Amino acid sequence: VAIWGQRDRQLQVLVDPDRLAASGVSLQDVIGSARDAMSVAAGGYVETPNQRLSVAHAPVVRDASDLEAMTLIMPAGSGVPGPTRRIGDVTTVTEGFPPPIGDGIINDGPGLLLIVEKQPEGNTLQVTRDVEAALEALRPGLAGVDVDSTIFRPATFIEMSLTNLNQALLIGCVLVVIVLALFLWDWRTAVISLTAIPVSLLAAAIVLYYRGGTLDTMVIAGLIIALGEVVDDAIIDVENIVRRLRINRALAEPLPAMRVVLEASLEVRSAVVYGSVIVVLVFVPVFMLDGLSGAFFRPLALSYVLAIGASLLVALIITPAMSLMLLPQAVHERESPLVSWLKTRYRRVLPRLVAAPKRALAIVAVSLTVTAAAYPLLGEEFLPHFKEFDFLMHWVEKPATSLEAMNRITLRASRELRAIPGVRNFGAHVGRAEVADEVVGINFTELWISLDPEVDYEATVARVQEVVDGYPGLQRDLLTYLRERIKEVLTGASATVVVRIFGPDLDVLATKAAEVGKAISAIEGSADVKVQALTLVPHVEIAFKSERAQQVGATAGTVRDTVATLLRGTKVGEVYDQQKVFDVVVWSEPQVRHDLFALRRMPIGLPQVRSMHW
Length: 614
Prior knowledge:
Strand content: 5-15%
Number of helices: 21
């Protein structure tokens, strides 16, 4: 669980160079006094005739008021007159937090953004429900805290996919009923064929489950695609059995129903088996794909093949058995009115086509030509556009952009995006979390939004894209989460194609990168071509002057320690509050560490050295 926006409690002794100089106190005096106040040592033990009693020192400092009351230790011979002074007399002691390396923004304001990652073999639905149950259990202890677990919820897409699969099954069953009722004119045949659909798909799902698989997007896609084949196997068998039973009933001496059903099933069995095997062989090359394409399409092919195999078993075993139970006494001799009507028209058209084969070939040629002309317009893409309602945006500002600037831009984007009807909520994380696996700079932000499933999808996405395009100074994109993850796995970046150029000279690399970017932009079909900028980030450099340092008795180590304390803070101890541990640091006042000129005026070493230029 990575947490953005986290602020760990820290006890801080804030120093001001001018205040220290006016008091005749050096930075090292403050650090030494604070470290002495926070020091921890063993107390030993007291031995009595009957007992050994351990001795422990009670904590001296528990909060800021305790620390500021501690005595300021001055070195012997410092010549600083007056009564004993406290740390709080020359510094500001307060409770704060370390300098952040990232931040979290939730719905137009600061917040904590928690990203929960599951193990690859974990079930997304189960993990999500368990996390939500844990949040619900924590709710009584989070009074006043608004917890929103829907900013990005992958389980929502899976649940919608399962709902769509159920709808596809229902529509498929209804279409099968309509087709069978119109052509076979008997409800029993519809029942037999409809049984094949759920039984085949359920058998495939059971095999996947016991293989350790889960229902992901591509597995569901494979099951949906297999619906046509699943129904086809059952209909072929049932239709032939019905036809043979009708012929048998018209005989002077009808054969036993068992024999008729068996022979009718065997008659089409070879066609059903060969057809299923051919379909399976078509998918064999998919299992040989490597890389992302193999990982992406293999689950689809596997679920499809399993559904086809289950359908074959159902057609060979269950369908004949149900036909024997339901059809022998119920099959009537009268054909379906639709079949009779089609046969009448077919008998009229067929002789004309047979008499004029060129006309028949012309019809086939025209059909093939139209198909070939339509093929380029179909549009093909390796990564499908999933209709997800969770969106992810990457925003990258120029390197060395401050956290304050990134937060300001992100808050503005939050207000604009949430003003769009249908945008349910907003979350963003800037920079890095304190504990996370993604190493990025402060200038990197990921924005998350969720749409209401009831809104006009295309129109709402277009409005979101318009807001994103309203920030031209940023490198930005708008992707559904699945599409972004797949791209990143494919290329190691959030782009479909990535070109990397290696070399020792940054100037040459920048020139060549611009040339490659220009060449790629000229290719028809390329979009959103970006050349990653090699920006030289400005920084402050401190050069040690030996001659000047010797005049005031300062050393290079003293300079380094002073700068580190002013800008980063120096840890001098820890505060223990039950099971929690907080750092105690000596740091500079905000106006000092944010001011380059205040850094130049910082006294080094002895308190009488009032100014030191680096």
